[in-house]
Amino acid sequence: MTSEADGQSIVSRFLRRQRSLSGRLVFVAAIWSVLSLAVAGFILVELYKSASERSFDAQLDVYVKLILAEIVPDPAAGNDAGISAPENLDDPRFSLPLSGWYWTVAKADGTTVLFASSSLVGDPLSVPPLGDQESQSTFSVGPGSEEIRVVQKRIGIAGQDYVIIVAAKTAGFRADIREFAQQVILTLVVFGAGLVGAVFLQVRIGLRPLARLRSSLGEVRRGEAEELDEDLPVELAPLAVELNALIHSNREIVERSRTHVGNLAHGLKTPLSVITNEARTETGPFADKVSEQAAVMSTQIQHHLERARMAAQRRVIGVSCEVEPVLGRLVRAMSKIYRERDVGLADAPPAGLHFRGEQQDLEELTGNLLDNACKWARSSVSVNVSLLQSGETARELFQIVVEDDGPGLSESECREAVKRGKRLDETVPGTGLGLSIVADLAGLYGGYLELDRSNLGGLRARLVLPSV
Question: What would the DSSP string read from start to end of 80-128?
Answer without folding.
Answer: T---------S-GGGTSTT-SEEEEEEETTSS-EEEE-GGGTT------
